[in-house]
Amino acid sequence: MSGLILKSPAEIEIMDEANRIIRDTLDALSMQIGVGMTTKEIDRIVETRLVEAGGVPAFKGYPHNNDGKDFPGSACVSVNDEIVHGVPDENRVLEDGDIVSVDVGVLYRGYYGDSARTFPVGNIDEESKFLLKVTRESLELGVQQTRLGNRVSDIGHAVQSHVEKHGFSVVQEFVGHGIGASLHEDPQVPNFGAPGRRERLQKGMVLAIEPMVNAGGPEVMVSARDLWTARTRDGRRSAHFEVCVAITNGEPRVLGAPVGCLS
């Protein structure tokens, strides 16, 4: 990442299409995810839909930062206490009461889209329902701060305040980011911190905002087996929602979403 890159209206329209492909994919998954499905099956559905829509799965083959194996899947599929970067597995079978986070990236016509949702599997407990609700609300509150003249830290402050008010914690080891012709661009977009700091938001910036919220403490551990899967250190559950937002002269624009939608 090296400096802010502002997007033209034409570039933002392409990114809107890229994110619409992901939104359609996640909408379809919401009707298919269920007890007995494996995380690898989810990955195959994602890859098929991205390719059929004319996109290239952005995560497949993504290089590891610490000399581990490149990411093997088209989607990060993280179950229960897994926060993010879950490696799809033929042997990981979803059970009634699980929650599963699916993070999807696509390269389309030279630009990236990136989005995530956490889905219930069958009948989930009340704490998990509340965790998903609060996480999605925190995303929407962060999106509302993505306005011309605000600062990057205003987004994270809105997220963290809402999450902690409800007794949950924000993951601090992983953050949102700028996005465009590269999957990860400046600025980083933490989900925590004091308001009124960091870069000022400008028209043409596109940010991937992605609260990762733990039911317990914020501490994270990474799997020694695959070197990718990040999970909560205390074994409590985690939820993850993400959208890409373009800064305009008016209301924040969630790419790939109907006008006025905040998540």
What does this entry look like structurally?
The chain has 263 residues and is of the alpha+beta class. The chain has a single domain, classed as Alpha-Beta Complex (Creatine Amidinohydrolase). It is 27% helix and 24% strand. Strand 4 and strand 5 form a beta hairpin. Helix 1 packs antiparallel against helix 2 and helix 3 runs antiparallel to helix 4.
Total beta strand runs: 15
Structural class: alpha+beta
Q: Mean pLDDT, nearest integer?
A: 96
Low-confidence stretches: none
- Described by its quaternary structure, the protein is single chain
Work out the strand percent. 15-25%
Provide the fold topology.
Elements (H helix, E strand, L loop, with lengths): L8 H24 L6 H14 L3 E2 L17 E5 L2 E3 L14 E10 L2 E10 L5 H19 L7 H14 L3 E2 L5 E3 L6 E5 L16 E4 L2 E3 L5 E3 L7 E3 L5 E3 L2 E4 L6 E2 L9
Antiparallel strand pairs: 1-4, 2-4, 3-12, 4-5, 6-10, 7-8, 7-9, 9-14, 10-13, 11-12, 14-15
